[in-house]
Amino acid sequence: MGDLAIFVLIISLQSLMCNVYCSCLNQSSSENILEDSFSFPSDFLFGTASSAYQYEGAFLAEGKGLNNWDIFTHEYPGKIRDANNGDMAVDQYHRFMEDIQLMTSLGVNSYRFSISWSRVLPRGRFGSINYSGITYYNRLIDALISRGIKPFVTLNHLDYPQELENRFQSWLSPEMQKDFLYLANICFKHFGDRVKLWTTLNEPNNQIILSHLRGTFPPSRCSLPYGNCSQGNSETEPFIAAHNVILAHAKAVQLYRTKYKEEQKGIIGIVVQTSWFEPISDSIADKAAAERAQAFYSNWILDPVIYGKYPKEMVNILGSALPRFSRKEVECLKESQSDFVGINHYTSYFIQDCLLSSCNIGVGASKVEGYALKLDRKGNLTIGEPTDINWQHIHPEGFRKMLNYLKDRYHNIPMFITENGFGDLQKPETTVKELLNDAKRIQYMSGYLDALQSAMRDGANVKGYFAWSLLDNFEWLYGYKLRFGLYHVDPVTLKRTPKRSASWYRNYIGENIRRRYD
Ligand code: BGC
């Protein structure tokens, strides 16, 4: 027996004995050993995330066309808390070199951004390509890569050319699938030699609830009692829009697979919004309601994308309001498997059954959301520490549970955490000093990153984490009053100033990269 074989034998005997005796160590000390020994895989991505409308500004610069958010914010400024819009946003269109410098100083190895559809195709497929838009993204991509930052590109994050709304009501029409495919092809063709990480659409589940169920986002379509809109039908349109989104995603994936992947060698997925839904009691009815809440939220998109069919809870409750996939479409879905899923995650809720029990009126309680009432408290107990925003509670344990749920439901498909972050609501009395001293954001991120590590130890196949967000930015209906950035942005000068969380994230990344080599 050679020296090496003897060495291996000794080590094996030692670990065998340890298995017999070390398991007698009390649980907490063995857990500590594991805690200390955790390290992220060497190819793990640490990044920051953004989106075109929230960051770029330059709203009519160099040939960009008008998009749905340009029109919405200009026509209805009263719907935005500070009556503002993304015309200027944080002007990343002109300041991306400075922003990449900030990313370099954080030590991130990836940046998630989205393509402004109307910058590349001002009139969708009904007009020509705006080559200034292509040049902008080429410059951004090249500058990122030259600093060792991998571009992680979302083809579409809520904004689309207004022309597509005017012509055929955007996602309510199968025509939108053609337009999305057209955009995808142009992006793969022009950027795919350097972009290796693609997602098709950003959280259509959340977007559609806001745009077509409650009607608070453009195109402001809904019906009573779900919202107050001049047109729309909350009981049917959200499901039609999602159906078109799912098929558009599948077609784009198939296009990438068949035409580009072999040469470009990238991977592609979709991003969904997730929240952890904790049954409010141990009753069978509340547990089933929590499962229905998942079905009507992230599984609504992920089940068709991964398994080619809608969740059974949706089929049973919605009946004919839920569109059906034709046999050919099911095949297309199955052939266009995503390489990974992108997970946006911010908060948790308690869930109470409203199918078998009587319920108060509230979010989630109706048929179209699965008769599963979303609550932030059970008696006096909140689901997590409350924050300034009514929809966000600090509940890292929910994140761990969510990742385990997805791991089990989707056969441990690779996941990227494409968004996770904490929002500070700026009140009239809030000072800049307070915003810079963002201890709550650090508490939030550190809790959620611990939960991520726990989920990975549980076996969740997570490949990266993107903090939302690099900078304070245009936070949709909140305008600039809700700040998610690691960097503060002055509303007048647009000067970027690091918050305490920026140095905290820099240290976290540094330590975790170092740990791999210890
Ligand atoms: C969206 C972002 C948004 C963030 C914070 C996510 O659902 O993708 O665009 O800024 O939530 O509200």
TrEMBL record:
SUPFAM superfamilies: (Trans)glycosidases. This is Beta-glucosidase 45-like. It comes from the Eukaryota. It comes from Camelina sativa. InterPro entries: GH, GH_1_N_CS, Glyco_hydro_1, Glyco_hydro_1_AS. Residues 1-18 form the signal peptide. The active site is at 419 (nucleophile). Belongs to the glycosyl hydrolase 1 family.
